[in-house]
């Protein structure tokens, strides 16, 4: 219960916050000056109200000062800052993953005691470590195969809460996520490490990873300044940051893309449509996954992007908005793409009839066997097998988006149109990503002008 102490014409309200790790009592205080002219009865009522409100704020964690520990502030930051932002689940999950490492190494520090050296040492620690590229993947061990050979597959899938297709893929040597691997190990009742092995090679942590931590910490500290917890941000412009690592995006040139598409003609209709669509539309993988039949205008040959599918650890595949406001767009495509759509729809209806009332109709174009949205890793895995089989340039799903943009720019399509088709938030984003293609196209333009305008006799001089 709050204590009220008279201080001249004002009052001091004190609320106990328990004890810290050293056994010292934590106190929260607030000075309050009631309105003038109140009777003793009304004054007491007003003070009791103010004390109760202040105590409730303290109990909810809304009252903080420089003695608040970083780990406690981060928890409140997630509740009151992140919770009020319209952030995608993927972004929130990224923040949560990063905050675990921050809390592990810096969480014990009081907000007012955090220095730039603390942060610099933390960044150096992160940079000196190792990590996994693109999330850790696992394969089953020989012991797993021996154990499951004596068990019913349905029993494992029901206990783990996964589908039979996942177990069949594992038996064939396929990869899976840490989350699913743990579920399977729990269902079998054996030690995780005896059943699964990581397939990811250890690698040096990238500069970009350190910068991700910095952006999150900087955001947290700026919020602390705005909330009056600390007087200034000890991070901003006070720590040395690694340079951003700019990598040229993987893509196919026009000749490589033509060879790719020619070989794709003999592939199953699902993958033939998906990979053609990625190249010809330039859509992001999540946008392809989010397409529904209602988004396809067969008459005007236009597809409309209204949503994107995203995978969030612990939640699975979820439907959300595309990456930016301008990502909601309409894209016109060649006639033959819509011929592929028609052929695929006939195939999908045939498959739907096979499963009967097990089909869940969400209107998605790319689905699993039961109508649920397909994990785009399935198409990504098929793409790798396809390029390996034909000895083609190794590319991933996002490379097909880069292929689309690069060929358009090299063909002379203006940057504004390319940016619009890609759904970039602004044209500068397109220019930065595809600077290498723009420079090549510029050099070709210079050569063209030379060939057209300069007299051969002048060239010889």
TrEMBL record:
Alphabetical UniProt keywords: DNA integration, DNA recombination, DNA-binding
Gene3D superfamilies linked to this entry: 1.10.150.130, Intergrase catalytic core
GO biological process: DNA integration; DNA recombination
GO molecular function: DNA binding
SUPFAM superfamilies: DNA breaking-rejoining enzymes (SSF56349)
Location of the HTH cro/C1-type domain: 149-195
Function: Site-specific tyrosine recombinase, which acts by catalyzing the cutting and rejoining of the recombining DNA molecules.
Entry's family note: Belongs to the 'phage' integrase family.
Protein name: Site-specific integrase
UniProt organism field: Acetobacterium wieringae
Lineage: Bacteria, Bacillati, Bacillota, Clostridia, Eubacteriales
């Amino acid at each position: 219960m709050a204590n009220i102490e008279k201080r001249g014409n004002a009052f001091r309200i004190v609320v106990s916050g328990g004890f810290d790790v050293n056994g010292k009592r934590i106190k929260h205080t607030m000075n309050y000056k009631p309105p003038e002219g109140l009777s003793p009865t009304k004054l007491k009522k007003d003070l009791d109200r103010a004390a109760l409100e202040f105590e409730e704020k303290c109990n909810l964690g809304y009252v903080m000062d420089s003695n608040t520990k970083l780990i406690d502030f981060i928890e409140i930051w997630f509740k009151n800052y992140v919770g009020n932002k319209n952030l995608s689940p993927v972004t929130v999950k990224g923040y949560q993953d990063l905050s675990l490492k921050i809390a592990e190494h810096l969480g014990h520090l009081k907000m007012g005691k955090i220095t730039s050296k603390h942060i610099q040492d933390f960044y150096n620690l992160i940079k000196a470590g190792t990590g996994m590229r693109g999330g850790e993947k696992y394969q089953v061990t020989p012991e797993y195969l021996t154990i499951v050979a004596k068990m019913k597959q349905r029993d494992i899938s029901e206990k783990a809460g996964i589908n039979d297709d996942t177990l069949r893929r594992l038996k064939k040597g396929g990869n899976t996520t840490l989350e699913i691997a743990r579920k399977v190990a729990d269902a079998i009742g054996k030690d995780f490490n005896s059943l699964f092995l990581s397939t990811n090679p250890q690698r040096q942590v990238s500069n970009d990873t350190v910068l991700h931590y910095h952006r999150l910490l900087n955001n947290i500290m700026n919020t602390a300044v705005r909330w009056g917890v600390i007087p200034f941000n000890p991070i901003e412009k006070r720590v040395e940051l690694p340079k951003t690592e700019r990598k040229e995006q993987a893509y196919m040139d026009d000749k490589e893309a033509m060879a790719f598409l020619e070989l794709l003609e003999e592939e199953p209709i699902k993958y033939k449509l998906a990979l053609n669509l990625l190249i010809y539309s330039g859509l992001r993988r999540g946008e392809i996954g989010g397409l529904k039949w209602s988004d396809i205008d067969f008459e005007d040959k236009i597809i409309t992007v209204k949503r994107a599918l995203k995978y969030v650890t612990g939640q699975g595949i979820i439907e959300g908005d595309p990456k930016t406001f301008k990502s909601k767009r309409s894209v016109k495509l060649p006639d033959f793409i819509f011929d592929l759509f028609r052929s695929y729809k006939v195939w999908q209806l045939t498959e739907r009839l096979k499963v009967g009332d097990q089909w869940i109709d969400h209107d998605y174009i790319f689905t699993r066997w039961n109508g649920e949205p397909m994990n785009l890793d399935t198409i990504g895995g098929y793409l790798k097998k396809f390029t390996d089989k034909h000895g083609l340039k190794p590319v991933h799903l996002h490379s097909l988006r880069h292929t689309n943009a690069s060929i358009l720019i090299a063909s002379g399509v203006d940057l504004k149109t390319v940016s619009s088709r890609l759904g970039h938030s602004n044209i500068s984003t397109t220019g930065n990503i595809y600077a290498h293609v723009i420079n090549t196209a510029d050099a070709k333009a210079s050569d063209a002008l030379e060939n057209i305008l300069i007299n051969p006799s002048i060239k010889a001089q």
